[in-house]
Design a protein that fits this description.
By secondary structure, the protein is of the alpha/beta class. The protein has one domain: Rossmann fold (3-Layer(aba) Sandwich). 42% of the residues lie in helices and 18% in strands. The protein has 7 helices and 5 strands. The strands form 2 sheets. The chain has a 3-stranded parallel beta sheet, with helices on both faces. The radius of gyration is 15 Å and the shape is globular. The two termini are 18 Å apart. The mean pLDDT is 86.
Protein backbone atom coordinates (compact mmCIF):
# COMPACT_ATOMS: atom_id res chain seq x y z
CA UNK A 1 0.00 0.00 0.00
CA UNK A 2 2.86 2.37 0.82
CA UNK A 3 4.46 1.60 -2.55
CA UNK A 4 1.19 2.43 -4.34
CA UNK A 5 0.99 5.73 -2.47
CA UNK A 6 4.64 6.68 -2.89
CA UNK A 7 5.37 5.58 -6.45
CA UNK A 8 2.01 5.18 -8.18
CA UNK A 9 0.40 8.36 -6.85
CA UNK A 10 -2.52 6.44 -5.28
CA UNK A 11 -3.44 9.17 -2.82
CA UNK A 12 -6.36 7.19 -1.38
CA UNK A 13 -3.78 4.71 -0.04
CA UNK A 14 -2.35 7.57 2.07
CA UNK A 15 -5.69 8.00 3.82
CA UNK A 16 -5.90 4.28 4.58
CA UNK A 17 -2.30 4.22 5.82
CA UNK A 18 -3.00 7.15 8.15
CA UNK A 19 -5.96 5.30 9.65
CA UNK A 20 -3.80 2.22 10.20
CA UNK A 21 -0.97 4.22 11.78
CA UNK A 22 -3.11 6.35 14.11
CA UNK A 23 -3.77 3.69 16.79
CA UNK A 24 -0.11 2.65 16.80
CA UNK A 25 1.22 6.11 17.63
CA UNK A 26 -1.68 6.72 20.04
CA UNK A 27 -1.52 10.16 21.60
CA UNK A 28 2.28 10.42 21.79
CA UNK A 29 2.51 13.73 19.91
CA UNK A 30 1.93 15.74 23.08
CA UNK A 31 5.49 14.88 24.09
CA UNK A 32 7.08 16.74 21.15
CA UNK A 33 7.61 20.41 20.42
CA UNK A 34 8.07 19.79 16.70
CA UNK A 35 7.50 16.98 14.21
CA UNK A 36 9.87 16.94 11.25
CA UNK A 37 9.28 14.68 8.26
CA UNK A 38 12.24 13.61 6.15
CA UNK A 39 12.28 16.21 3.38
CA UNK A 40 12.67 15.45 -0.31
CA UNK A 41 15.18 17.28 -2.46
CA UNK A 42 13.35 19.94 -4.55
CA UNK A 43 14.03 17.99 -7.77
CA UNK A 44 12.51 14.80 -6.37
CA UNK A 45 9.57 16.77 -4.94
CA UNK A 46 8.88 18.22 -8.41
CA UNK A 47 9.07 14.75 -9.97
CA UNK A 48 6.81 13.04 -7.43
CA UNK A 49 4.54 16.02 -6.80
CA UNK A 50 4.30 15.46 -3.05
CA UNK A 51 6.30 14.36 -0.02
CA UNK A 52 4.86 10.97 0.93
CA UNK A 53 6.05 11.16 4.56
CA UNK A 54 4.55 14.59 5.07
CA UNK A 55 1.31 13.56 3.38
CA UNK A 56 0.74 10.56 5.63
CA UNK A 57 1.86 12.36 8.79
CA UNK A 58 -0.46 15.30 8.05
CA UNK A 59 -3.37 12.89 7.71
CA UNK A 60 -2.48 11.08 10.95
CA UNK A 61 -2.37 14.39 12.81
CA UNK A 62 -5.68 15.48 11.26
CA UNK A 63 -7.33 12.28 12.49
CA UNK A 64 -6.61 13.31 16.07
CA UNK A 65 -8.61 16.50 15.64
CA UNK A 66 -6.35 18.29 18.12
CA UNK A 67 -3.96 21.10 17.39
CA UNK A 68 -1.11 18.70 16.59
CA UNK A 69 -0.84 19.98 13.02
CA UNK A 70 0.92 23.08 14.33
CA UNK A 71 3.77 20.85 15.54
CA UNK A 72 4.47 19.65 11.99
CA UNK A 73 7.21 21.95 10.76
CA UNK A 74 8.16 22.01 7.07
CA UNK A 75 10.54 24.98 7.23
CA UNK A 76 13.18 23.87 9.73
CA UNK A 77 14.91 21.22 7.61
CA UNK A 78 15.66 20.99 3.92
CA UNK A 79 17.37 18.42 1.77
CA UNK A 80 20.19 20.27 0.08
CA UNK A 81 22.01 17.31 -1.45
CA UNK A 82 20.22 15.37 -4.16
CA UNK A 83 21.17 11.86 -3.10
CA UNK A 84 21.15 8.99 -5.56
CA UNK A 85 18.62 6.20 -5.13
CA UNK A 86 19.58 4.06 -2.18
CA UNK A 87 17.30 1.09 -2.79
CA UNK A 88 20.18 -1.36 -3.29
CA UNK A 89 22.76 0.21 -0.95
CA UNK A 90 23.94 -1.14 2.40
CA UNK A 91 24.05 0.98 5.57
CA UNK A 92 27.61 2.25 5.04
CA UNK A 93 26.94 3.33 1.45
CA UNK A 94 23.69 4.99 2.48
CA UNK A 95 25.38 6.79 5.35
CA UNK A 96 28.12 8.11 3.07
CA UNK A 97 25.52 9.12 0.45
CA UNK A 98 23.56 11.08 3.07
CA UNK A 99 26.45 13.11 4.52
CA UNK A 100 25.58 16.79 4.30
CA UNK A 101 22.22 15.97 2.69
CA UNK A 102 20.18 17.93 5.27
CA UNK A 103 20.39 21.53 6.45
CA UNK A 104 18.68 23.17 9.41
CA UNK A 105 17.39 26.63 8.53
CA UNK A 106 16.91 27.95 12.09
CA UNK A 107 18.92 25.92 14.61
CA UNK A 108 18.08 28.29 17.45
CA UNK A 109 14.41 27.23 17.21
CA UNK A 110 15.41 23.61 17.90
CA UNK A 111 17.54 24.42 20.94
CA UNK A 112 16.30 22.56 24.04
CA UNK A 113 13.25 21.22 22.18
CA UNK A 114 11.90 17.69 21.89
CA UNK A 115 11.71 16.61 18.24
CA UNK A 116 10.06 13.69 16.46
CA UNK A 117 11.69 12.85 13.11
CA UNK A 118 9.48 10.82 10.76
CA UNK A 119 10.36 8.68 7.72
CA UNK A 120 8.18 6.36 5.67
CA UNK A 121 10.24 3.16 5.38
CA UNK A 122 13.24 2.05 7.38
CA UNK A 123 15.54 -0.11 5.33
CA UNK A 124 18.89 0.33 7.08
CA UNK A 125 17.96 3.35 9.20
CA UNK A 126 20.63 5.55 7.59
CA UNK A 127 18.28 8.35 6.51
CA UNK A 128 16.55 8.56 9.86
CA UNK A 129 19.88 8.32 11.67
CA UNK A 130 21.46 11.13 9.64
CA UNK A 131 18.53 13.52 10.01
CA UNK A 132 18.26 12.79 13.74
CA UNK A 133 22.01 13.47 14.08
CA UNK A 134 21.72 16.83 12.31
CA UNK A 135 18.73 17.84 14.46
CA UNK A 136 20.53 16.80 17.66
CA UNK A 137 23.66 18.73 16.66
CA UNK A 138 21.46 21.80 16.21
CA UNK A 139 20.78 21.77 19.93
CA UNK A 140 17.61 19.72 20.30
CA UNK A 141 17.26 18.31 23.81
CA UNK A 142 15.60 15.07 22.77
CA UNK A 143 15.22 13.49 19.32
CA UNK A 144 13.12 10.41 18.59
CA UNK A 145 12.43 8.64 15.30
CA UNK A 146 9.29 7.13 13.82
CA UNK A 147 8.83 5.13 10.63
CA UNK A 148 5.61 3.86 9.09
CA UNK A 149 7.13 0.61 7.86
CA UNK A 150 10.25 -1.52 8.09
CA UNK A 151 11.71 -3.35 5.12
CA UNK A 152 12.14 -7.05 5.74
CA UNK A 153 14.62 -8.94 3.63
Amino acid sequence: MLIAYKYQNKLSAGRVLAQLIKPVVADSFENFDFIICVPLHPRKLRERGFNQVDGIMSRVLDLYGKDYGTKLNRQLVSRIHDTVSQAQSDFEKRQENLKHAFAISKPNILRDKSILVVDDVMTTGATLHELMRVVKESGARDVKGLTFARRIK
